[in-house]
Amino acid sequence: MKRIAVVAYGLFTVAGGVLGATGSRPDSSAADVAAYNATHQGLVQLLALVVFGAGLSLATWTAAAGPPRLGFAGGLLASGSLLLSGLATWTAAQIPDVARPFTSLAFASGAFGFAVPLALLIAAVAGTQARWPAITGYVVAAAAGLSIFGMLTPALYPLIPVGRFGGLIWLVLASFTKPRD
Question: Which of 51, 156, 61, 31 has its CA nearest to residue 110?
Answer without folding.
Answer: 51
